[in-house]
């Protein structure tokens, strides 16, 4: 490959990292509390509220039911308002974040539901408040699985960020499409795929290690 393509690859890696990191951080900030709320507001739980639970659950289901490529196109006006543009790395962060939040929230919801409810009842019997139960029981017990959930999210976002390249989102996906596909440069396509495979495997390895370190069992 020419030095120009190598520089382009490095730029693509940087853009992909920005998209994935920004989307993951915002998704974690919103999605983890949302997942906890979905559990604790459900019937029989510590913050039971049928109205809140049904509204949040409906919103999550609606967003999750829209294919990512369609969502990217559908929210272009909103993306322009938020990012000031509808193309490029910054713009791609908007749909990536929107799709990541409900995805992570459902994963976190499942993790929190797997926590033995007997621990919650024991904490309640000792006078713990709902927020103390969340902070000292639910989150610590579910943390290893939540770390795995974030790992799954990051891997999915890498794939979605590559898809964002189809409409000018930048990153490795954009390079693969513009050079590997449209210009029939097979070596560029191959290198892009190898970089993505290596990235996914590294992230999975780090996530698995972090989860094992936090697992008390």
Polypeptide structure, described:
By secondary structure, this protein is mainly alpha-helical. The protein has helices at residues 3-40, 50-64, 68-74, 76-83, 89-113, 117-125, 130-164, 171-181, 186-214. The protein is elongated and about 70 Å long. The chain has a single domain, classed as MetI-like fold, CATH 1.10.3720.10. It comes from Megasphaera lornae. Belongs to the binding-protein-dependent transport system permease family. CysTW subfamily. It is found in: Cell membrane. It is a multi-pass membrane protein.
Number of domains: 1
Global structural class: mainly alpha
Task: Spell out the helices and strands N to C.
Answer: HHHHHHHHH
Task: Profile the largest sheet.
Answer: none
In total, how many beta strands? 0
CATH topology: MetI-like fold
Report the β-strand fraction as a percent range: under 5%
The CATH homologous superfamily name equals MetI-like
C-alpha Rg (nearest Å)? 20 Å
CA-to-CA gap between the ends? 49 Å
CATH architecture descriptor name: Orthogonal Bundle
Low-confidence stretches: none
Number of helical stretches of at least 4 residues: 9
- The CATH class name reads Mainly Alpha
Arithmetic mean pLDDT = 90
Helix content: over 70%
Shape category? elongated
